[in-house]
Write a structure and sequence with these properties.
Layout lengths: L4 E6 L6 H10 L4 E3 H9 L6 H7 L4 E2 L2 E2 L1 H8 L3 H25 L5 E5 L3 H4 L7 E6 L2 H9 L6 H10 L3 H7 L2 E4 L4 H17 L1
Parallel strand pairs: 1-5, 1-6, 2-5, 6-7
Antiparallel strand pairs: 3-4
Helix pairs in contact: 2-5
Length: 197
């Protein structure tokens, strides 16, 4: 049975990955958003709340995971982060498989995986597209976010595989250091190429 071509979409913070994922979706390509899956699993009534509360007491409540409390519990602590990932990643993988099954007739699906290279989430992908922009553009975008500081940005970057390494490992690079229209043209061309097979 023919299955969809599975494209992994990734990119460092501030590179425009969310905007590119929306461009794929706007062109009718089913997009699985790993971050949204995590939010669902950790939101009110989420399937992972009990396990997270057991591992990190006091980090959940009626509204789901208290992201600030959980963040404080794991940020900068590799062992704590690893314990959280053991809870979260298998559940996200199940959701990803269910998504793929639901869209089995589509010629192309996109898995939007922010930390694809950092966390080894590349299983089952046919190719990877990295969203990239010049470092100064990235910095400007990230520092415009509410509550972001140069120090926090530096901490986040230190945890991510460098953009140049991501580009080198990618099958395709989508440049977002251009106009939105030019980025959309790149996305359209990539869809055409992958669907044509």
């Amino acid at each position: 049975m023919k299955r969809p071509f599975v494209l992994g979409l990734t990119g460092s913070i501030g590179m425009g990955k969310s905007a590119v994922a929306e461009m794929f979706a706007a062109r009718g390509v089913p997009v699985f958003d790993a971050d949204a899956a995590v939010h669902q699993l950790q939101g009110p009534g989420g399937a992972l709340l009990a396990a997270i509360e057991r591992a990190f007491p006091g980090t959940t409540g009626a509204g789901g995971v208290d992201r600030a409390a959980l963040g404080a519990a794991v940020f900068g602590d590799r062992d704590a982060l690893a314990r959280l990932e053991v809870i979260v990643h298998p559940a996200v993988a199940v959701m990803r498989e269910e998504f793929l099954a639901a869209h089995a007739a589509a010629p192309l699906v996109v898995f939007d995986i922010p930390l694809l290279y950092e966390k080894g989430g590349g299983q089952g992908l046919d190719a990877v597209a990295v969203v990239s922009a010049p470092a100064d553009t990235q910095r400007e975008r990230v520092l415009a976010r509410p509550g972001m500081t140069p120090e926090r940005f530096a901490q986040i970057l230190a945890l991510q595989v460098p953009d140049a390494a991501k580009r080198a490992r990618a099958d395709y690079v989508i440049d977002t250091g251009t106009s939105l229209a030019e980025t959309e043209t790149q996305v359209a061309a990539l869809i055409e190429r992958l669907v044509a097979g």
